[in-house]
Amino acid sequence: MNIQLISNIAIAAVTVIFLIVGIVWGLKRGVMRSLFRLVTILAAAVIAYFISMGLTTRFYPQIQVAVETLATKGGELVAEFTNASPSAVDFIVNLACALVAPLLYTLLFCILRPLLWFVYAALCMFLPSKKKHPVSGLSRFLGVAVSTVGCFVIVISLLMPMAGYMKLASGVYSDVKASGVVSTESMPADLEEQLTTAANAKSVGLVDKLGGEYLFSRLSTASGVDIRAELDSLLNLIPAVMRLSEINFEAMFDDSENVDLSPIKDDLIPAVDNAEELKCILAELLAYAGGKWLRDETAFGFDIKASLPAEYEGTLDAVLVRLEKTTAATVTTDLTDLVNTVETIADTYTYLYCVGDKSNTMTQEELQGAMSDILKGLTPGSAELVSQAVTSTLVENALVGTNTGAIADLVSDSLTEIATLTDEEKEAEAAAINNLISYTSSVRKDDVKPEEVVDTLLESQTVQNVIQDKGTIKEGETEPETKIAVSEKQMTAMEAAIAEKELTATPEELATLEALRNMLYVATPTTPETPPETETEPETSETETPVGEETETP
Fold first, then answer.
1. What span, in angstroms and rounded, lies between the C-alpha atoms of 154 and 282?
2. Which of 20, 76, 186, 295 has the fewest CB atoms within 10 Å, i.e. the most exposed one?
3. Cα separation of 381 and 528, whole Å?
């Protein structure tokens, strides 16, 4: 099938036929009758134009109801989608109206043109009879010219949809092919080339130059949308949606799964970034889902809180509160921050689990690498949300015993500033935070030497600032805001490490070391230590009987 050949033949055939008809009509009718017929043809075109423009507005509510009814028959998920986003329904209706309007115009023109022939006949009654006053040669010549104009109006009205749809198909076919929404395996391999060639053919160009392009553009934008731009946006979105469907959201916080959320950041967000209509739809869907998830309800078949371990249920509340209020102006930023937050929190859960699990064999170097990955995933927009989640996780799970609140404060206050640093700068921050958490963890405290803790803290400007702020004794007080409990053995070792470092420390480092010293205190044991078990001799009232000997029964 050669699309270019078919379109050229169709356009040429219609044009030649009506030109011949126009010449015959002009010769036969003369100038006045041809002029009356031209008036009725133009009237048919104008009436068809305004009716087709008006019908899209007049029947908009009915079309909207029809779309919503079809959505309810499409399944629970489709119905929820349309209920959650009124803008989605408007978008579908507007797009449908934009596609149908050119065809509706041509249909109305074909109906009105023969109907208005009666008007032409009535006008001709005021003219003298051709039998009494034969048509002159000049009248016939002018009649041909006028009839030709009328025939061109007919040709444009009939061929305008085909030329417009062909150019539209040529422009979007590559996107349709890339989106996978239509199977292209059974289609000709050179279909894309044929469409492009046909759209650029002289015959299509002729229809456009005679007014077809302007007419198609006016009709297709009658509903207030740019059909080409919206189709491009929609087709760019489809691959992103298809990739999203492959994500197992329920496994996001499963240590054994590696859930990749890059389709949201790399596909979905860029697809809607420059499309205002799609931004509005996405904002409504996210606001709807955020509110549902915040109340621990299911949205679009998924409950994000249900995917969390029981003790983490409140961790994402800050993210969901923000998501519930998202708008078209903030949707891409909010969605980006949400993804970054969820990814970082998921990594943080794994990290904290490894820190607090007695059976875990990860080395301090591996834990530091895990913390480095967590910090590298931080963005300024998500830092506050992640900070709240990390604090909540530490406190709710008490992974560092009596120091939970203190470590949570130190880590939380560091994250916002760390988010603005480069990946290289975050390496030092990762070592400091990892050693701080590990040193005060009941499981990991023996893995970290006091001098290592001191060194990594002094290498991190961010953590230094936080320690100085939290560990400085305010005027009129006897102890700092934050206190970290250590064993007597840890206190002695830390004091020695601090004293050694003070010999070469800068004034700023001295302030950090003094603040750190102020924060440390020997914790009072909450439970008495269990004395070591000793083997006891079994109590026997009689002498053991040698093996193989029998005792006499009294």
1. 43
2. 186
3. 46
